[in-house]
Amino acid sequence: xxxxxxxxxxxxxxxxxxxxxxxxxxxxxxxxxxxxxxxxxxxxxxxxxxxxxxxxxxxxxxxxxxxxxxxxxxxxxxxxxxxxxxxxxxxxxxxxxxxxxxxxxxxxxxxxxxxxxxxxxxxxxxxxxxxxxxxxxxxxxxxxxxxxxxxxxxxxxxxxxxxxxxxxxxxxxxxxxxxxxxxxxxxxxxxxxxxxxxxxxxxxxxxxxxxxxxxxxxxxxxxxxxxxxxxxxxxxxxxxxxxxxxxxxxxxxxxxxxxxxxxxxxxxxxxxxxxxxxxxxxxxxxxxxxxxxxxxxxxxxxxxxxxxxxxxxxxxxxxxxxxxxxxxxxxxxxxxxxxxxxxxxxxxxxxxxxxxxxxxxxxxxxxxxxxxxxxxxxxxxxxxxxxxxxxxxxxxxxxxxxxxxxxxxxxxxxxxxxxxxxxxxxxxxxxxxxxxxxxxxxxxxxxxxxxxxxxxxxxxxxxxxxxxxxxxxxxxxxxxxxxxxxxxxxxxxxxxxxxxxxxxxxxxxxxxxxxxxxxxxxxxxxxxxxxxxxxxxxxxxxxxxxxxxxxxxxxxxxxxxxxxxxxxx
Length: 569
Prior knowledge:
This protein is of the alpha+beta class. 52% of the residues lie in helices and 18% in strands.
């Protein structure tokens, strides 16, 4: 397929293929680079977020650890001694010692938390919150306590009991420890992380919303719907588009608080240099394509069109159209080439016309010679038939044959034309068959030819030798009734008349011999009737025209007489 294309088309296709290959390789390389950078950005964001989450979790773990260990302090145990019931001073003294220890812990801790101790049996409360009076209420600890940190009133709260099995029934506990810290501790940590340029993390909970740094929350509020819609797992990330800007959002769930540590990065801003480089490359390719189209168009107008015109002219010249002339308005090398081509075509046309005239004269002489050979052959058969019928005293057959012979020669000598319509040929064949049916009473015939092809022309005496052979060599040797069928077919301007008989038939080897004889030069050992018909049809109508033999379904021979309707060419 590719080898059939012209040179200009091949060059254009190769250029397009090279351009597509370059675009594909660059696009693939660019996508791989973007993918690697995006992967590094995502890992870096997740690492920063993990560092921030570890810092928060470390502080919360310290608070939780202190809340679990405070119940084992000796001062707490001493404060609950029953004998202090009658010695209030000692209990107050121990309570002050407990409060002092809790303050010391707050001073050493990174976060200032509020530690409150509840003594259900004594209905006493000790708290580091100096600005609030916290009475003991029996209804406060009727419900089971949560075993994880809870969020309420902008602070996180965590409970533990002594013994720990009293979490389900806190009213029966000896000690209930409540540790809480305000949200601003997390806000301060988020501000510190923001100032160190380690992203812009915040905390998210599907029910409580956001905890962010003190800077603007416009972007965070835009990300909030995406977080609520996403099916968050223990950790992961997803991409989202906000205000036509793509962000990558990473998250890690806090095992202590139940909230999510979230951070985000604008991917397009980070990938902007690569995107700019990619756009510059595509713009350069677009300019290159435009320039290439201009160059290819110039080459097409200046070179390809003249070449195509020259090729078409050469093809027309090779098919026999010697009247072709080329015209080129531009003043270049093709003008001289076209002028030389026109001179050559004119000289060839003059030479071919002279040769063609001589060929026509030779062709007419050959046709008349072939046609003249068949007339004596038919005449001899008719005269021998009249002789035999006269001997047999068959007056009707003699009269019919004589009349037919007269009609035949009138048909031959009526016009100078070598062609006859199929209607005239069939009329002659019908007369001939009627005469033969008088001679052979056991012979029958049918003629079925469509009316729309009766006016098509064929060489004179095309059918008569075929019918004659079918009778003499097919039907006469048989002692039973015989039949001849004549019908026609037409398909794509190819006409076929079929003659079938129910005679003796032939073997395949005999049929092959007949087919070979049609292609050999005429000699004295072969009959000239069918050979002349085949030669005239081939000579007049070209390749594919002539006779062909086959076995007939009636038992005899089937002869196809085929010619092409090229009278208008």
